[in-house]
Every structure is written in C-alpha cells, then in structure tokens.
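Sanity check record (used in CI):
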Amino acid sequence: MSIQTETIRRVTVPQIRDRKGGEPIVSLTSYHAHTAAIAEKHCDFLLVGDSLGMVMHGMESTVGVSLELMIMHGKAVVRGTKRALIVVDMPFGSYEESPSQAFRNAATIMKETQCQAVKLEGGARMAETVKFLTERGIPVMGHIGLTPQSTNVMGGFKTQGRDEDTWQIHIDDAIAVAEAGAFAIVVEGVVEPLADKITKAIDVPTIGIGASKTCDGQILVMEDMLGLNEWVPKFVKKYGAMGDAINEAVAEYAAEVRSRAFPGTANVYGSNKK
Ligand SMILES: Nc1nc(=O)c2c([nH]1)NC[C@@H]1CN(c3ccc(C(=O)N[C@@H](CCC(=O)O)C(=O)O)cc3)CN21
Ligand SMILES: CC(C)C(=O)C(=O)O
Ligand SMILES: [Mg+2]
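Expected output for 3-methyl-2-oxobutanoate hydroxymethyltransferase:
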C-alpha cells in the first residue's frame, strides 16, 4: 500500500535515538520545498528552524517568529521531502507557559505540517514539558546551551561555558531533558570541552552546532553553509558560494535584458503556421 510505505520510508525517531555513539547524524535546517528535496538526499533529519525568521524574513532575532510562519515553512518542507525525518521548531511564546500550552501548539504543528517531531529550547526548566509531550505522542528534540530565543536575557548570542564554573548547569540541563524523554538534544554555542562532557553525560544523541566533533551529530543553517550571506558565526564552514553564484547570474540576466539579448529565440513563442 503506497500510503503506508510513504510513511515508513522516512527515518524514524527511534532510528535517530539509536544512533547514540554510532555513525554521526547529519542534519541541516530547511525552510523551503526545493532545497529540502536536495538536502534530504544527504541528511538523516531536517530541521525547520525558527532561524527562518532571520534567514528568510530579515528579522534581527527569532523572538518575532509566529506559529503560523513555522507551520507555513513546515508544510513546504514536508511536501518537498519523502525520506528524512522532519523536525519543526516551536517558536518563542508557543510552549513556555505550561505543558498544556506546549501540547496544544505542538499538536497543531504536527497536524498541520505532518512533521514527525518538534524541538523546543531550554534545559531543566522545560523538562516537565518535554515529558508531558513525549508521554502524549509528540517526540521532542531538546535544545540547550546557547538558546537564541533567550537573546534578550543573554544580551545577544553568547557562547556558553567559557567559565568552567557554569558547566554543571549545562550538564544538568542536558540530563534533565534526556531523562524527560527527548530523543536527541541540540547542543548549541558551547565551548568544545563542555560539549564533549554533555555528550558523555547522556544516553541520547547530541546534535552539535558551534559545539564539538564528538557530538553524535551536527547541524548547520543550510543558507550559512551554502555561503548565501557574507557574515556567518565562527562555527560555520562555508561549503559553497551561493551568494556569489546568485550575484553573477542576476548580473548576467540584467545585462542581457538591457542589451536585448534576452529573451532569445528559444525563449519566445511563435503562432501556429498556416
Ligand atoms: N543564519 C543563522 N545561522 C545560525 O546559526 C543561527 C541563526 N541564523 N539564527 C538563530 C541562531 C542564532 N545563532 C547565532 C548567531 C550569532 C552568533 C554569534 O554572533 N557568534 C559569535 C560569537 C559570540 C561569542 O563569542 O560569544 C561569533 O563570532 O561566532 C552565534 C549564533 C545561531 N542561529
Ligand atoms: C540552529 C538550529 C539548531 C535552530 O534551532 C534553528 O535553525 O532555528
Ligand atoms: Mg531554532
């Protein structure tokens, strides 16, 4: 039955959880059907991250991202893919109030987008919510360390754990979220030795971004690694130069329109010859 196999073909939450200590988990963010279709050929899961507010919509932080925007991009990515597990970020304000608020909004995200899991930011303080969702059928990916939705409290996107006295807080956050039932945890923007300790301290996979190669997987914002923007955080490696490629293509198009070289004979329609 095609309906059945379509579902089974995707990577599952238990498959990701079982990769602890195994072959590194590969992931990227995705906001868009066509780029997701390319990315899923090489990735185990794709994250529809709330960074889309900054990358796609020019916001200065992720704080302004709405549930509707996450659902819109989540639908696009699910439609564009067949095989990867799709995780959608819960936006700021959609889950912090209470476990029931989180459940209601996470269920809406899953019903509307047909994604397989949600991600939410926060350590020990979110453990009760992670447990509440997981026990009720919503797989949760955790996210600790640098949590961008708290940028206004932190005063910017600040690397965590520079001071060793703070390490135990982050390790305890990871343990709390893992014990609450998260199937994997994003560890973002922490010093490398702390990321190593966190990975050793929990029995679910850590997905690093600005963390360490010892994490059980890695994630980057796709547009960052494609080289779409000039400035990227230090932890990004640019594997492409999409910004330059777009600039060259648009410049050539503009020149050809101005010289009337475009449209050429191949790009126009003739009438039916009598
Ligand atoms: N395009 C994009 N890529 C990301 O990785 C990303 C987003 N957007 N939006 C949401 C969060 C915000 N992120 C960020 C943004 C900036 C820094 C940054 O300025 N880092 C400084 C180091 C700061 C410090 O040393 O404390 C750097 O120079 O890398 C880090 C993570 C990661 N996430
Ligand atoms: C950077 C990843 C982990 C994220 O949360 C996002 O893209 O929103
Ligand atoms: Mg995010």
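The chain has one domain: 2-226. If this sentence no longer matches the regenerated tokens, the check is flagged for review.
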